Amino acid sequence: MNLDLVSPPPAWTERAACSAHYGDRWYPEHGHRAIHGKRTCFSCPVVEQCREYGMDEFWGTWGGLTGKERRALGRGRGRRGIDFDIPEADR
Questions:
Q1: Buried/exposed code over 46-77 (b: 16+ C-beta within 10 A; e: otherwise)
Q2: Would you place residue 19 in the very low, low, confident or very high pLDDT band (cuts 50, 70, 90)?
Q3: What are phi and psi of 56, to 5 degrees?
């Protein structure tokens, strides 16, 4: 494997709320909600950078949005004023 082709992560990822968390919370199984990952995104200082970075990713929660939500945005709904779809009691 040629590791020269692997890019380092963007600098903003060091400030991401998820940088201290590992696991499947950003990649829930099919049919499961992404609430645990979204909860972390809700208070993240770099959520907008993450969302923009993840717009071309098919899987996972990026910037508080699932792949399905990102694809819906990509169809012309704009990228501002996004509802995190987290019940108020879970925030």
A1: bbebbbebbeeeeebbbbbbbbebbeeeeeee
A2: confident
A3: -95, 0
Provide the domain count of the chain.
Answer: 1
Q: Find out whether 60 and 51 touch, Cβ atoms under 8 Å.
A: no
76 is a domain residue: yes
75 falls within a domain: yes
Model confidence band, residue 51 (pLDDT cutoffs 50, 70, 90): very high
Residue range of the domain that includes 60: 17-90
Partners of 65 in the β-ladder: 62
